[in-house]
Amino acid sequence: MSDKVIIFHDPTSEPSRAVYWLALEAGIDIEVQYTWLTRGDHMSEEFLEVNPLHQVPAMRHGDFCLSEATAIMNYLTDINGCSDKWFGRDVKSKAVMNKHLSWYHTNLRKVLTLDYFLPALLMPAYLGFDRPSEAEIISKLEAIHTMFSSLDKMLEGKPYLCGDEVSAADLLYVSDIFALEIDSNYQHIIQQYPNIVAWIERLKALPSYEQCNRAWNYVVPQILALDGGTKGTPEWIKTECEKVL
What we know:
single chain, alpha+beta, Thioredoxin-like_sf, Glutathione S-transferase, GST_C
């Protein structure tokens, strides 16, 4: 296929940032179509033709549409001849990669993002939803610490999840962890895990880190300044992000 891949991307979505970051870091030429969740772009008829589940990231390549970050990342690297670099060079390294991708969905993504970040941090800031009770928050943070303890052990003695080279799993994992930066206790939480801290710094040193995360990094201090409050309608996130894109 000669037509360019279109990625439907919201810079405030963790998996969406991971896909965009991989494309940047791997030098894959894509067309980015911003699809703002806070403006409801993901509910438009045009977008639902690409992904009826109304989620980002999504992809269109000619008449082929695809959703789910890991599937899109695999497809992008497959058609650009660099899958070995990002998803494993042999049977064993591919198996290790699949182990990490499975662990992400059932541990990091679930415990950190779905169970804590969304209900306790993002939805109160975006839509003014009530935060979970203090007892629920304590329970969710305990689960996060258990998960981070496991991740810290997984990184022991190596610079990246799969060894000496950065992989798709690293970009996927850390994009979710960056979301936690809107928690005022982020530094206190993360500093307890030295292997994770060193790994994050390595990933922030990648050439494409700043471009990929520029919009999110711009709104993080603004969300923190709300101190648990909200600006009303969530469209302000899109307006602020667009100032630096």
